[in-house]
């Protein structure tokens, strides 16, 4: 209950006197590493020419999200370990988390709302164009 009372006060979020515990450094290192690895993997997969354009766009969005948020997370972790006063405040992790959730929402919105529409439009267009004569050059 003390934790819930503490997060209400700005002094909790703006404090930078306590370093990040070692177990949290390990957990955050792994989490940010997974984000970077996911970003690199999605970026490499987006280079495949066999994928349709909407799927490549989704992979590029995932790649940029993973790389940017992972590297920014490593930067925040570096500031915390080095005890850089303002940049290691807890509020920076809160800002990072909010930005990550908003960005993740936009990627998931594209994946579940926009991508299926574009894929069906593309398949319908291919079905229609299959019976049309090819344009001569």
Task: Note down, in words, how this protein is organized.
By secondary structure, the protein is an all-alpha fold. The chain is 76% helix and 0% strand. Helix 4 runs antiparallel to helix 5. 10% of the residues are buried. The model has no long low-confidence stretch (mean pLDDT 87).
Question: Which structural traits does this protein have?
Answer:
mainly alpha; 5 helices; 137 residues; elongated
Overall structural class, as computed from helix and strand content, comes to mainly alpha
Radius of gyration using CA atoms only: 22 Å
The main sheet comes to: none
Strand content: under 5%
Q: Mind sketching the topology for me?
A:
Blueprint: H1 2-6, H2 10-14, H3 22-45, H4 53-81, H5 90-130
Helix pairs in contact: 3-4, 4-5
A few lines on this structure:
This protein has 137 residues and is an all-alpha fold. It is built from 5 helices and no strands.
């Amino acid at each position: 209950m003390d934790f819930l009372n503490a997060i209400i006060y700005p002094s909790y979020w703006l404090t930078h006197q306590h370093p990040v515990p070692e177990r949290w450094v390990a957990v955050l290192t792994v989490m940010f590493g997974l984000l970077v690895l996911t970003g690199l993997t999605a970026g490499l997969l987006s280079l495949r020419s066999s994928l349709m354009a909407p799927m490549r766009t989704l992979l590029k969005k995932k790649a940029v999200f993973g790389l940017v948020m992972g590297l920014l997370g490593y930067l925040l972790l570096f500031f915390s370990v080095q005890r850089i006063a303002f940049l290691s405040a807890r509020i920076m992790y809160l800002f990072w988390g909010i930005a990550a959730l908003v960005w993740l929402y936009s990627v998931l919105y594209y994946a579940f709302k926009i991508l299926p529409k574009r894929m069906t439009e593309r398949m319908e267009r291919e079905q229609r164009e299959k019976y049309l004569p090819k344009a001569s050059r």
